[in-house]
Specification:
Layout lengths: L8 H10 L6 H24 L6 E10 L7 E8 L9 E7 L5 E7 L2 H9 L8 H12 L2 H9 L6 H7 L1 H6 L32
Antiparallel strand pairs: 1-2, 1-3, 3-4
């Protein structure tokens, strides 16, 4: 059996940057969508065994790589509540009884969010995105999302408050903030200060 050396992300990024071929954007979009659907299904099946509820949120966050230019990472996770909105985030609800997956919102990158929100009018295909962006900047996001989709799912803070007693019972005791004692410099003597050039035996 021969070990096949896999190309690193950096090698693939350099190859993609030097590729002069023309690709059909629609084909690329379909490929991305197909992969996204598969990954969302895996995420849904994994968390269906964890969450003791019929419906929960699936989240996709797109992040750029800090070291490799042009690389986008798709990160999938799930929450039992509505996550805080953020740029380059798409959120779905998943019903594990019937397997239905419904998109709640899809936010573009921060710059695009600001531009769309400042535009007085947008074309039909951007109207939902503008609604989400406007709602984000007006700080009415969760109320607007619930109204838009006719849902009553709790936010993170609402969920934690509603289940606080369960968390405390499970051992997640609430701790009061610990107060730090002011440092007493009078207790410091010369021998307590270590000379970094003095060898330690």
């Amino acid at each position: 059996m021969h070990n096949v050396k896999r190309k690193t992300a950096g090698e693939m990024s350099l190859k993609a940057a030097s590729d002069t071929s023309l690709y059909d954007p629609l084909e690329v979009a379909h490929a991305l969508t197909d992969d996204m659907a598969t990954q969302l299904q895996i995420c849904a099946e994994t968390h269906a065994k964890i969450f003791d509820m019929d419906e929960f949120c699936l989240i996709l966050v797109i992040a750029s790589d800090p070291l490799i230019q042009g690389v986008r990472r798709h990160k999938y996770t799930a929450f039992p509540f509505l996550p805080k909105p953020r740029p380059q985030q798409t959120v779905f609800t998943y019903n594990k009884r019937n397997g239905n997956c419904k998109r709640l919102w899809c936010l573009p990158n921060a710059k695009t969010m600001a531009i769309i929100s400042e535009m007085p009018t947008v074309s039909e295909e951007w109207k939902a995105t503008k609604y989400w962006c406007d709602s984000f900047f007006k700080h009415t996001f969760f109320d607007d999302i619930r109204k838009m989709h006719g849902i009553d799912m709790m936010t993170e803070s609402e969920y934690l408050n509603a289940h606080r007693a369960e968390f405390v019972k499970a051992g997640a005791d609430e701790l009061e903030g610990l107060h730090s004692d002011p440092f007493d410099f009078s207790k410091v003597t010369v021998k307590q200060v270590v000379d970094k050039y003095e060898p330690i035996l």
